[in-house]
Amino acid sequence: MNKFKLSILTGALLSSSAAFAQITAITNATVHTQTNQGVLENATVVIEDGKIKAINPKSVNADITVDASGKILTPGLIGSMNHLGLIEVGAVSRSVDAYDKSGIEFDPSSAFNPRTSLIPYARKGGITQNVSVPSLPWGESGVFMGLAFVADLSGEFDSVTDRRTALIVDLGAVSGDASRGSAMQSFVKKLADQKKKLTSKKDKKKDKDPSSEEKLLTQVLRGELPVVAYASRASQLLELVALKEQYGLNLIISGGDDAVLVKEQLAKAEVPVIVSAVSNLPSGFDALHAHLGNAGELEKAGVKVILNVAGDGSHNVYQMRFDAGIAVANGMTHDGALKAMTSNVADAFGIEGGKIAVGSRADVVLWTADPFEFSTRIDQVWINGESVTTESRHDKLRERYTTDSNMPHGYTK
Amino acid sequence: MHIFKPSVIVLALSTALFGCQQDTGPQKDKVTIEKNPYPSTYKPHSTSSTLITNATVLTGTGERINDADVYIVDGKISQVGKDLSVTADSTIDAAGKWVTPGIIDNHSHLGAYPSPGVESHQDGNEMINPNTAQVWVEHSVWPQDPGFNRAREGGITSLQILPGSANLFGGRAVTLKNVPSETMQGMKFPKAPYGLKMACGENPKRVYGGQGVAPKTRMGNMAGYREAWIEAAEYKRAWEQYEAEYAAGMNPDAPHRDIKLDTLRGVLDGEILIHNHCYKAEEMAMMIDLSKEFGYHAGTFHHGVEAYKIAELLGENGNCAALWPDWWGFKMEAYDMSLENVAIVDAAKNSCAVIHSDSDTTIQRLNHEAAKVMYSANEAGFDIKEEHAIKWITYNAAKSLGVEELTGSIAAGKQADVVIWDQSPFSVYSKAEKVFIDGAKVYDRHDSKYQAVSDFMLGQR
């Protein structure tokens, strides 16, 4: 049986040949811009120096022309709220850098490993950027988890594109002898104390330089640093909306199984909500309204929805596009689901990418058909303007064990 | 590890020694072991006939019939084919829709690890000893787990509930019909054999080795299984001797009853099927040899992330492999994943590839899981069609559970466990529209009368 796949080879060759500045033209594509240009048919997208150089130019002199007739070009998908780059094998502690209890200032970005096997695998799902987040160690509870960062999935050593992207706080259900009341209190106290320092500061002459934590909290209070709050109970979400207004927070909710109960308030307060499209079980008493239709309902109410992959979202982020299909089957619009993995993520976290517009990052994916369908395959992926392979060690394993050889498999490479 | 207490061995031996010296007076009552003390009370309740017309039918046995009719009478498939000329109590026009056998998940923890996942609901894993063959997971099943309803909405008509994987021997598994019920017995699949959960690899050695108790290593795992089977073989021999002597008119004392060894003996007698959590190629190969050493069949390997490395061996030995399409990387033993694992296992001669969930989420969409595998494999050069891929979640799953003569296919005489899909179940947008179990409609997406709600969810707001 010959199960070797030619397109994988082609992808591998392309990725190694794109070292110098070339002009790539993707022609005749159906382009989902995720801007107010909407969907362009038979369009040409020109990539140069890592950026989208032009869309539908009068003429183009390209080094590489990719005929995308009958194919769909979308912005690269952006994963979020996982530990991509901070984890290789979950149960191998020395390969995991996501869990730490240093608290509010914990910035795991320097531990990011661009060579992890998870990255080429994630590219199979059209993921081109990712918002990685820290967590507390297993069994620990606390409010402040640390800071998120953004990396592209080029696998290059310079792939961290944004550090200190958002502050992650956990205000959800707590086990043991603790109350979500005290979690909220300690969050509010941090905000209130810093606000007081900022407003009373001008009266005092002998100010010390603010500590790094104080600087961070100042950014939070100025709305410069988004705060992602894990919370699901509807009454708590309303409290958070009130806090956003009181302190000028740039608030994002993650989880939000019961967010549908307060969807109008969330929409009005312009709070993006990160949900899993497949969360539909009452995992606890904060999630009695978990439902496959929730992503669509939130969208309809005007909430900016972001999709992420539940469970082990680091190893499995590739399947986000399928989750989007499930969201669409249950009421979300197709365009809304694509936004929920591209422009909505970029907008909420204030990062570059997530759209196909002149001047934006050239992270784009060419699909053979509807990006959400199982039958659709990826034709090519460009990250930062360069064509990258979607081959991973998983493919090498398959090839090894499906290649006929008169020698032991160990010699098939 | 506590196995066969010395006193029991002495008792067994003394029984053997003195057996032939028993008096020949009137025999005492014979001691027999009730093998089905918690019997199924599930009764198929459909006596009406249903005709599904003009559907794309995947039979579950590799066939696809376009524009076909399925005729259900008294809870059984009566006929399947084109233009059936029969009359039915109700007719469903399924033009444009697809019909498959009811979907079967041979690896679930619903009811034992139910939603909500609160402390009081952690009933799936008796993590107190590496051998807990004495526990029966059916005694943990909470029939009100809302997950059963969600699974039914995804077309699941039968499922095996397994204990967890911390122990070398985790206990007995049970196969259920996915019908709403107040009792476990009301769901229990009549005539389905019991399963025994075994576990290889990292979990047992981590859980017990971490407490300074055997097993601490993979070789410790193997020693643990072997010691247990030696004990079980001795137990079986003692009972068989008792039965033979009793039948010969003697008056022997019955061996001491041990419910842990009852289960292991059930495996040696071929009455209980092995379901073995086992990821790695070399471990599965050793579990096959272990089964030959003690004279039982190694059954179904679950998770089997490396099954593709030994696909031929699994086929030769007649093992099913119940696999995920794509879970990986959470442990070292789950590192060598291939998206084509199921397809490679399936391609071997005499194979039995199954897609399982081990998840209260993906159990709701095993059709999607099969679609992922089919399309990944086809991209890699395979040529797998829907009518074949559906076997992984229907007929092959039934075979793994020993119920393939009863369900898992659309063929005359089989239980009418049937799903009508709104389109090809291999589309991401597909949804189960109607689900039948033994001919009775148990779910209808467009009729709330057929949408069961768990007691737990009732009145919540």
Automatic annotation (TrEMBL), chain A:
One of its GO terms (molecular function) is hydrolase activity, acting on carbon-nitrogen (but not peptide) bonds. Keywords: Signal. Pfam families: Amidohydro_1. Residues 1-21 form the signal peptide. It comes from the Bacteria. Residues 254-388 form the Amidohydrolase-related domain. The keyword Nuclease does not apply. InterPro entries: Amidohydro-rel, Metal-dep_hydrolase_composite, Metal_Hydrolase, Metallo-dep_Hydrolase. PANTHER family: ALPHA-D-RIBOSE 1-METHYLPHOSPHONATE 5-TRIPHOSPHATE DIPHOSPHATASE. This is Amidohydrolase-related domain-containing protein. It comes from Pseudoalteromonas luteoviolacea NCIMB 1942.
UniProtKB/TrEMBL annotation, chain B:
It comes from the Bacteria. Its cofactor is Zn(2+). Keywords: Hydrolase. Coiled coil: none annotated. GO terms for cellular component: cytosol. Residues 362-438 form the Amidohydrolase-related domain. GO terms for molecular function: hydrolase activity, acting on carbon-nitrogen (but not peptide) bonds, in cyclic amides. The keyword Hydrolase applies. This is Amidohydrolase. It comes from Pseudoalteromonas luteoviolacea NCIMB 1942.
